[in-house]
Amino acid sequence: GSYRMVLPDGGHVVAGDEGQLRFDDRQVRCSTSADGERVSVFTAEEVAELVLIDPYAPSAGETADGGKVMAPIPGTVTRVLVEAGAPVTRGQTLLVIEAMKMELTLTAPSEGTIVELRCAAGDMVQEGRELIVMKEASPRPLSLNPAADGGPQTSSLE
Questions:
Q1: What whole-number distance in Å separates Cα of residue 112 and Cα of residue 39?
Q2: Rounded Cα gap, residues 69 and 81, in angstroms
Q3: 10-residue averages of pLDDT along the chain (158 residues)
Q4: N or C: more exposed end of the chain, with fewer CB within 10 A?
């Protein structure tokens, strides 16, 4: 297939079926191989592996299913930073779990309101346990410019 990467500075990298890699004005012979979300680009000088990242996909601990926040691994809830009835924004930190001496921050999967807390600081939780229930806000129209929506301003592979 053909892949196009848009760089933060506005530059482009294009790898296509014709065996050419084009970086703005420069062209290099290449081949590509895709495996799920990974694309490997092979040139005579190097191999680059690109990973498709959906900036709107939920992060660890989030689900796109009705705004539920689930425990991604077993651990202990160390902090709960919201309360029932509180409005939250997408990406806002909701709670922190400690597992194997690491802290895992769980964030809101969308804009909305906290309906119910199903855990408290000090609770031991198992993987998959529902920790917070949210009511998602009404969807707003999606902009063609993710940066304008507060989304990431990073390279993207199309």
A1: 35
A2: 13
A3: 61 61 71 75 78 56 64 94 93 91 87 94 94 80 45 40
A4: N
